[in-house]
Amino acid sequence: MKKYTTVNDIANLTELINDAMALKKNPYAFQNIGKNKTLIMLFFNSSLRTRLSTQKAAQNLGMKVMVMNISKDGWALEFEDGTIMNSTAAEHVKEAAQVISQYGDVLAIRTFAGLTDKNEDYNEKIMSAFVKYATIPVVSLESATEHPLQALTDAITITEHQQKNKPKVVLTWAPHPKALPQAVANSFVKVMQLSNVDLIITHPKGYELDTEITKGATIEYNQEKAFENADFIYAKNWSSFADYGKVLTTDARWMITKKKMQQTHNAKFMHCLPVRRNVVVEDAVLDSENSLVIQQANNRTFAAQVILKKIINNYLSDD
Ligand code: CP
After folding, report:
1. Cross-strand bridge partners of residue 213
2. What is the distance in A from the centroid of ligand 1 to the CA of 47?
3. Going from the N-terminus, what domains does the chain have, and what CATH number goes with each?
4. Residue whose CA is closest, atom 4 of ligand 1?
5. Of 285, 259, 291, whose CA–CA distance to 272 is shortest?
6. pLDDT in tens, 3-42
7. For residues 195 and 236, what is the distance between their CA atoms, to the nearest angstrom?
8. Ligand 1, pocket residues at CB < 6 Å
């Protein structure tokens, strides 16, 4: 594995999940493979879980970690070729990515969708430029259209908690006051398509995800119907893909409630966090025994650790 910026980079999901679960049992089993290797993490946007869990994952492998809030502390970057840089941007990503690559061994980047220009976001302007110009492996800490470490985490968590061979997994849109990216939903759909699950996606009309990503998946516009016999309810808000970046509704009837969870097959509740209580999901669901959100967040460490371990073994190993 030379990079991990999309779920498409996964060659064997079962192997990754099994390796991550083994690391969870014995996190320090490979505590020397990252010796004298440095992970550089660049944050264009805020983070709690991704920042701390990826740092912990690297430390568990013996790596050193350097973290930079690049949008706040770095020079404003230019991404277009041939630009006359006489405005805000002081440094081109061509130089920045190559220079950063000299200071570390793996480069991890978080950058959210701008949600104004669909082409720019879906061409992954920032992540693609770093992949192009960096000379070291690149890992996504969430990009404009994908959150592959979250998706791997979610697949690990479902594997740990599933009680039948092919569980029914429902990805449900939930209300939110702000326009949010489609990244988590996109990567969740992709990773579920690699899994042995019955995936149903439910959302109000107008919230269809990119059909290139959802092709083959079942879309059910009636949330209550979608919840029937579900084993896992995965809630997430996203803004409209068709009417790009717009909030079309904040209809509270789409909030996840205890009453709705009672229509399921005693389903487990999942959310990537952070979550707005009593907007996305009722307290009664989040605080219930069936909520997996804290265990999910714990698995972020082992998802990151298995990816870093694979990159070290396959690409950075001195052997
Ligand atoms: N789930 C997730 O990516 O959390 P953070 O935004 O806090 O990193």
Report:
1. none
2. 5
3. 7-146+300-316 (3.40.50.1370), 150-296 (3.40.50.1370)
4. 49
5. 291
6. 999 999 999 999 999 999 999 999 999 999 999 999 999 9
7. 19
8. 47-50, 142, 150, 272-274
pTM, full prediction: 0.98
- Average pLDDT, integer, range 211-221: 96
Instruction: Determine if the peptide bond prior to 175 is cis (ω within 30°).
Output: no
CA atoms within 13 A on the CB side of 58: 22
Q: Which atom of ligand 1 is nearest to the CA of 48?
A: 7
Count helices and strands in the chain by DSSP H and E runs: 13, 11
Provide the sign of the torsion angle of the four alpha carbons 8, 238, 199, 309, taken in this order.
positive
CA 61 to centroid of ligand 1, rounded, Å: 21
Instruction: Indicate the top mutation candidate among 41, 42, 43, 50 to test ligand 1's pocket, ranked by most ligand atoms within 8 A of CB.
Output: 50
Ligand 1 mean position, distance from CA 243 (Å)? 25
Quick check: 11 and 1 in contact, CB under 8 A?
Answer: yes
Residue nearest to atom 3 of ligand 1 (CA): 50
Interhelix angle 148-161/49-60, nearest 10 degrees: 80
91-127 per-position pLDDT tens digit: 999 999 999 999 999 999 999 999 999 999 999 999 9
Which atom of ligand 1 is least distant from the CA of 110?
Answer: 8
